[in-house]
Design brief:
This protein is of the alpha+beta class and 70 residues long. It has helices at residues 2-19, 41-44, 55-60; strands at residues 22-27, 33-34, 49-54, 64-65. The strands form two sheets. A two-stranded antiparallel ribbon has the order 1-3. It has a two-stranded parallel ribbon with strand order 2-4. The chain binds zinc ion. Zinc ion is lined by residues 35, 40, 42-43, 66, 68-69.
């Protein structure tokens, strides 16, 4: 029984981890950067919709990390 609880705790830990690599993108149509911090000042200047996606997905789209908040 203890083993089951441990396994469940590990699962929760792993699923928590995978959701922590969300990045923020200013959806202005031409943005090639993504932000790792929602509080990034460059992101705050965005007057379009801000969308979140996984870092992996952003990299696949050819975007690179913002150098202010990486
Ligand atoms: Zn940034």
């Amino acid at each position: 029984m203890k083993r089951v609880i441990l396994g469940f705790a590990l699962f929760l830990f792993l699923s928590c981890n995978s959701s922590s690599d969300k990045v923020y993108i200013c959806e202005n149509g031409s943005s090639t950067t993504f932000h790792v911090k929602q509080t990034c000042f460059a992101l705050k200047k965005c007057n379009h919709k801000v969308v979140t996606e996984s870092q992996e997905e952003a990299l696949k789209e050819g975007k690179h990390v913002c150098h202010f908040c990486k």
